[in-house]
Each structure stands twice: as C-alpha cells, then as structure tokens.
Design goal:
By secondary structure, this protein is an alpha+beta fold. It is built from 1 helix and 6 strands.
C-alpha cells in the first residue's frame, strides 16, 4: 500500500489554536459590546427625560393660557407654578400624552419652577433611569 502525502485538512493542534484565538477575541469584545449597549440605553433614557421637559413646557404654556384645569387625570400642578407633577402608573393617561410621540416612560417626574420645566427623571421599561436638567 502506498501512503498518501500532502493530505488536505487541518490537524487537531491547528483547530485548537483557532478556537483559542476566537475565544480570546470574544473575551476582549464582550465588555466593549456590553458597555456600548449600556451607553445606548442611558442616552435613550436621557433623551426621553429631555423630551418630557419639552412636553411639560408646552403643556404649561397652554395651561397659562387657560386651556387646562389645575389638575388633570389625578396629576396635580400647584397653581403658583412652584411644584411638580408626577405620573406613577404606566399606561395611565396624563397631561403630557398629547405632546409626545412614541408613548411615555413607565414612571416619570417633571419638576416645575416658575411655570417652566426645570428637570425630569424617568424610568424606562428596561429599568434605565434617565435624567435631564436639575
């Protein structure tokens, strides 16, 4: 019998080396991807808080023109403009629903000072907390 020379294929050592290189690359890339996803979630939550402030400013401007009551759907506003309005339940209609496209975060608080939105804090469905302003 003749022995074949120049066999095609990979040796076991070559396969182990390739698998080890892939494992090292995954180990190096995983924290970067995780950090990127966390940063994206935080940016999204902060943008939602900023949108809440903008919507609150529009709502307060209409309120000053007398188009809204002092309390709407159980969400209270101080008549002197120095207070806060809070939405605590997901899916509950509130004064800002008409000013935002894409829905509202699960939980949000907008802080009001001098008839303007001074800041906002919101909790997204994934639990990320967004902040804007004070």
């Amino acid at each position: 019998m003749k022995r074949k020379t120049g066999r095609a294929g990979f040796t076991l050592i070559e396969m182990i080396v390739v698998i080890a290189i892939i494992a090292v690359l995954i180990t190096l890339a995983a924290p970067l991807v995780t950090r990127y996803v966390a940063t994206a979630k935080q940016v999204r939550a902060d943008a939602a808080a900023k949108s809440l402030c903008t919507a609150a400013d529009a709502w307060l401007a209409e309120k000053m023109l007398g188009e809204h009551q002092s309390a709407e759907n159980g969400v209270n506003i101080d008549d002197d403009g120095d207070g806060e309005f809070v939405k605590k339940l997901a899916g509950e209609a509130g004064p800002l629903d008409g000013y935002l496209t894409g829905g509202l975060p699960d939980i949000y608080t907008v802080f009001v000072e001098n008839w303007g939105a001074a800041g906002a804090v919101c909790t997204m469905p994934d639990g990320t907390v967004g902040r804007y302003g004070n």
